[in-house]
Amino acid sequence: MQRGELDLLRQFEDLIDKIDIDEIGIKEKIKAEVERFKKFQQVVLGSKEKITIKDIDIRNYAKYILREGREVEKRELLGCLRGKIILNNKQIALGIIEP
Questions:
Q1: Alpha helix segments (H runs only) across the chain
Q2: Which domain holds residue 76?
Q3: How many domains would you assign to the chain?
Q4: Which residues have a Cβ under 8 Å from the Cβ of 61 and sit 6 or more positions away?
């Protein structure tokens, strides 16, 4: 990843706390990831430990996806965002969507 892309991702992480996120879509994604991890643990590691989804910090999950996620995961995340994101002079800002 190029330096400019990293700078934009860092800016986006800072703004994620201000963005209205479609939490239902994100929660479904998290639930699917937890189920996948649980299956991995059971099959590969032979674990019988129960994994539950309790208090999920949606915004921290979004930041994690921005930092560590694959390109397709980042696209999915962007699909769950509400609002207008404006890129101007290499700076990301939040815009208001007018009805």
A1: 3-15, 23-44, 58-68, 71-79
A2: 3-95
A3: 1
A4: 26, 30
Distance CA 37, CA 51 (A): 9
Q: Which pLDDT does position 70 carry in this prediction?
A: 92
Query: Quick one: what percent of the chain has pLDDT higher than 90?
Result: 3
Q: Which residues contact 93 (CB under 8 A, 6 or more apart)?
A: 15, 85, 86
Rounded Cα distance between 21 and 83, Å, is: 9
Q: Select the more confidently predicted residue: 28 or 96.
A: 28
* 3-class secondary-structure state, position 96: coil
Burial classification of residue 36, based on how many CB atoms lie within 10 Å of its CB (0-12 exposed, 13-18 middle, 19 or more buried): exposed
pTM for the predicted model, two decimal places: 0.70
Q: Quickly state the pLDDT bin for 1 (edges 50, 70, 90).
A: low
Q: Can you read off the two tokens belonging to residue 49?
A: 């430990």
How far is Cα 12 from Cα 39, in angstroms, rounded to an integer? 32
